[in-house]
Amino acid sequence: MINRRTTNGASDASGSINTNPELQHDLPDRARAFTLVELMTLIALVTLGVLCLLPAFAHSKTDTKSLRCLNNLRQLGAAWRMYADDNAERLVWNRDGANVGQSSSQNWVGGWLDFTSSTDNTNTALLVDHARYAFAAYLGPYIKSAAVFKCPADFSAINAGFQRLPRVRSVSMNNCVGEGNRSWINTSQYQLYRRIDSIAKPRPAALWIFLDEREESINDGCFFSNPDLLYNLIDYPAAYHNRGAGFAFADGHSEIHHWTDPRTTPILSSGQLLPFNIMVPGDPDVTWLQQHASSRP
């Protein structure tokens, strides 16, 4: 038996076509294509939407690097604390100078960073291989990946032969913290912290241990502040994250601190040297660095 179809334009049992105009659709109107004007309007709207989303995509990439930077700093902070726990509360070595990491100058990291072809710029073992460098890489037993020592937004590199090689470190330690450390001046009124149990004032959440240092400023593993002299800027913090730098604090947390004064992060031309140890009157960024580097006893 052949089923009788009742939809418009369908055949009945006899095979004839239903041509009732009231049941037929206007197929040409329904199937017609976009006009040129409509198509151009649609393309313009899609383009506008993409342009509106581009800043969000860029911001997302920036946030990803910030999160990776903060994670690196948290790992460094945890290793710093574990070292103290395993060494009778003594903090890891933090000395300054071109010979850090050698027999006369134990240090948490070894090497002197610059923009020459020196292997100190590219040798990750100076950061993590304490078995090889007995007077450096003291956090190596706690941190196996050298990538933790460099902010993912730091693209500084050196020319080595015919190669362009990335430098291995962007992180430095607060000069007021660590075994063998020193203040900027000989008669400082501010504390030097050499044991974990000495960090009571300021409270641990307000004392920074590590920061990302600016690529033209970093050399040894020590970042100097001078809280004895208001507005004295010695070394320069980085500004890799929307004019901000990553910090790790004594309580274990990390954060991005954003700078507000352009003098803290000057724009330099190629070949210019940074003016170290300068006065920047009224700079709130320098004040923040000093207030979180140490406190009076």
Which structural traits does this protein have?
9 strands; five-stranded mixed sheet; 297 residues; 11% strand; two-stranded antiparallel sheet; disordered N terminus; alpha+beta; 4 helices
The total count of strands amounts to 9
Straight-line N-to-C gap = 104 Å
Percent of residues in helices? 10-25%
Our count of helices gives: 4
The largest sheet, given as strand count, sense and whether it forms a barrel, is: 5 strands, mixed
Count up the domains: 1
Structural class: alpha+beta
Spatial order of the strands forming the largest sheet: 5-3-4-7-8
Q: Uncertain spans, ≥5 residues at pLDDT below 50?
A: 1-19, 56-60
Proportion of beta-strand residues: 5-15%
The helix/strand series, from N terminus to C terminus, equals HHHEEEEEEEEEH
What's the mean pLDDT score? 87
Task: Write up this protein.
It is built from 4 helices and 9 strands. The strands form 3 sheets. It has a 5-stranded mixed beta sheet. Strands 1-2 form a two-stranded antiparallel ribbon. Strands 6-9 form a two-stranded antiparallel ribbon. It is globular and about 80 Å long. Strand 1 and strand 2 (163-166) form a beta hairpin. 23% of the residues lie in helices and 11% in strands. The chain is of the alpha+beta class and 297 residues long.
